[in-house]
Amino acid sequence: MTTTTLAVLVPLLPFLGAIAGLLLGRTAPGFVRPLAVLPTLASLALAATVAWRQGGHQAVDAVTELTPTGSVPVELALHIDGFAALTAVVVTVVAGCVQIYSTGYLRDDPRYPSYAALVSLFTSAMLLVVYSGDLMVLLVGWEVMGICSYFLVGHYWETPEARAASLKAFLVTKLGDVPFLIGLFALATEAGSFRITRILGAVADGGIEHPTLIALLLLAGVAGKSAQFPLHTWLPDAMAGPTPVSALIHAATMVAAGVYFIARLLPLFEASQAAMVVLAVMAAVTMAGSALAALAQDDIKRVLAYSTIGQLGYMTGALAVADRGAAVFHLLSHGAFKALLFLAAGVIIHAAGTNSLAAMSRMGHLRDRVPDAYWTMTVALLALAAIPPFSGFFSKEAVLGVAEHVVTGHTGHAPAAAGWIVLLAGLVTALLTAAYATRLWLLAFRGHGPEAPDHGRQPLTMTTVLWVLAVPSLALGGFAFRVLPDWFDGHDLTPTLTTSVLGTGVALVGGIVTYAAWRHTTAHAARVPLGAVAAHPEGDAGLVEAEAIASHEPAYGDIAYASDPSDPGRLLLGPLHRHAAAGFHLDALYTALFVRPVRAGASLVRFLDREVVETYVRGAGALPRWLGVAVRRAQTGNLQTYVSALLAGTVVLAVAAVLVATGA
Amino acid sequence: MHLAYPAVLSALLFCTGLYGVLARRNAILVLMSVELMLNAVNLNLVAFDVWLSRTAEDTLHSGQALALFTIAIAAAEIGIGLAIVLAVYRNRGTSDIDKLRDTAEGHEPDGPDSDTTGRAVPGSRTAGEKAEATA
Amino acid sequence: MTLAAAAGTAAHATTTTAAAGTHGFLSPTGVEIAFLLVGLVTFGAAVITVTTRQLVHAALWLVVALGGLAVEYLLLTAEFIAWVQVLIYVGSVVVLLLFGLMLTRAPIGRSPDADSGNRPVALAVALAAAGTLVWVVTDAFRTTWIDLDGAPAGSTDVTGASLFQHWVLPFEALSVLLLAALVGAIVLSRKAKADAASDAADTRRDTEGTR
């Protein structure tokens, strides 16, 4: 088979698997698990083959136009360069792991068939985005991901949190998608094509007249999808979905799509200095703010969610300094260790029966209950904190190194201001990242108190996957920074000494300070008992997690916050802690700015509709009704009345006719 | 003779009949008034026929022929009309037309239809027999 | 343009206008006086027919009105129609009506409810119609003159000739109509009888009677 055929099969197999899973889900439940896992694994093999054949050389391009579509043609196009090939491999690896993990995680869930089919569809849509060479086809995958995320985040739709979160995820990403769509049309109109290669050609020839406007419009969509400030608020709330879904959304699909999209169209963004600076500011605010917020979260998954936002900030930062190689490098390594973090967090939540770090910190020997999760999560947290030699170190240093390059003026692609912004924000975030990673580890695994309940060993499907993902988290970075430049643009991704020392140094400082704070505060833990665990610890992991999420707010008063004096984050953040826990009140701000005016407008419209429009409608109805009543009165059944009226009318008509005939 | 005399007489007779049709309560009196109206028309027909046969030398005599036909039809009409009135009288016990108001708005059909009620009761003997008969 | 001219041209009146000039309304001929008197009697009888409270009297006054009309036909030299009028109307129709009155058990003597509540409306409509018709008719034909001298226009000879020369087909069609009316009348009254018979207590004798 040619590379093109293989590449077409990569998104097609999970799609067919999703269709078959939806069709057979009720009639043949035995087929659901193979149908979920096997197509994804098959497309993993195919994606790997495609990547091996492509090998970072000449990009594979294949085009077919199904039907003429007017002035700007829409073509089914493949464009597989090094970025696409490697991203697809990561997507399929993570998706395969998630599917295998889900068979254990949701083993008793009655809605598992539709869940697995939607995950397959999600994967397929992301692969379509990755491989597509045409922006319209890319948009199809982009939107299918939006709808799949809506369904998957709302998997536990019995709980109000999940319903609200799924709606929020859908609406916020759609809010970004509207300008995104307009930007796509503007871009295609100016370039005369939806094909990415032609658009990049037009950019190179200077054929785009309004690069700033288009870039900013596209940026809005990317901010929505990739959860960048100010449209990031859906991502922490999306934790109401099952943990494997979080892993999928955060590691490989959905949020990666935005970064990947900019990476594809980076020359267009480079054409506008303003867009690059906006991108840099966006990345800096996202990074620093999300890291602060992560330090204050009580829900273990919300910590990870805010860390995802921060790591995505690194990627957009790398794009803001015009190095897509570094961005996609970080995307790849982050995909591995973030998927691992989430899947391990799912195991921990299952074992602990709670998602609250405050409750976990009061459990002894939790790490002995879940040794696999303990070790793999340690690896992943070290990667997250960018401690050498874990993979996160190399990718993060690549980003910081590029920023330093820009600052020192070694490259002309990006404005120096963007470099400064990214570099400083990146260093601050490295400190904070190490701090919250340490806090997470300490609270989850170093708790004191009554022993954690023993629910037996975790399912093998769940623990094996953790080790599979631990390998790239540990070793991908050190191996890849030498190889990847051949696949990417050729920029050097080797860590530079300055940024390595600086970054590792601040990370160590952050970790040590947090440890010291934890030593100081942990004494309070015994004095303030806290903790609520799920009511059905024997249920499958999905049920335990759903109960943990549903009980967090009644137990602690807030979905993200627990008033725990032994939390080191409280000591470190001081008065900032309360605001950080609430995501710096951005949700409240949006409520005040958008939700309330819209609600007020809706109630105004409702009032107008009920009281004003309805009155007119009723008035319009009343007149015929009165006429009808009057006419009904005439229906006496008395023939003589009828004939009288008839003849009187005849007389009148006759007189009229005579008068007209005589011309009177 | 002036044509206006029979024409005016005809008009007056017609309107008298009209008044009778509209004002009388008994159906047979209404029929009498209808006869008056028909006769008024006949007078018109005859008068104009005579006039035309003299002034226009018309030999077709359509007016008189039509008057004859009208007389015949009137005879038929009175026969049928009386039969209807008698049938109504037998059914309703009255021939007052302002009491025959079945078409009035909001009128409830007074006598229950025995046929439909028989069908509406399942298992009743008549319904069973009817079902067999229709089968 | 007056209605007289319009109707005159429509009726192909070629010479009437000239003749009408010599006959005024104020110098009536003998025939006209007779017509007028008989017409008054007829109209009066008709008015009494539609206003009297005694039902049988109404039928009898109808006889007077119809008979008066027969006289008017004679004055218009339409002899055959006049005799047919007497024969059919006075002879049969009124008799039928009287039978109908008897069969529906109409009260003999004054009945207070002979007129329905529609009377004022009826009066208004009738007066309006009369006014309109009389105005139109007099306006149209106030100068038109019928020459009644010479051979009668409606003798049996003439009528028969025209009826059986020009009007044979309608005549035969009319006979079919009369047959249909005959059958219809019989069916209507017979069905009514059958219904009444089935309702009656002694059904056996009635069914035998109808057989």
UniProtKB/TrEMBL annotation, chain B:
Gene Ontology MF, one: NADH dehydrogenase (quinone) (non-electrogenic) activity
Subcellular location(s) of the protein: Cell membrane; Membrane
Pfam families noted in UniProt: Oxidored_q2
Keywords linked to the UniProt accession: Cell membrane, Membrane, NAD, Oxidoreductase, Quinone, Translocase, Transmembrane, Transmembrane helix, Transport
Reaction catalysed by this enzyme: a quinone + NADH + 5 H(+)(in) = a quinol + NAD(+) + 4 H(+)(out)
EC numbers: 7.1.1.-
InterPro entries reported in the protein's UniProt record: NADH_UbQ_OxRdtase_chain4L/K, NUOK/Mnh_C1-like
Subunit text: NDH-1 is composed of 14 different subunits. Subunits NuoA, H, J, K, L, M, N constitute the membrane sector of the complex.
Protein role: NDH-1 shuttles electrons from NADH, via FMN and iron-sulfur (Fe-S) centers, to quinones in the respiratory chain. The immediate electron acceptor for the enzyme in this species is believed to be a menaquinone. Couples the redox reaction to proton translocation (for every two electrons transferred, four hydrogen ions are translocated across the cytoplasmic membrane), and thus conserves the redox energy in a proton gradient.
Family per similarity comment: Belongs to the complex I subunit 4L family.
Name of this protein: NADH-quinone oxidoreductase subunit K
Source organism of this protein record: Streptomyces edwardsiae
Biological classification of the source: Bacteria, Bacillati, Actinomycetota, Actinomycetes, Kitasatosporales
Name of encoding gene: nuoK
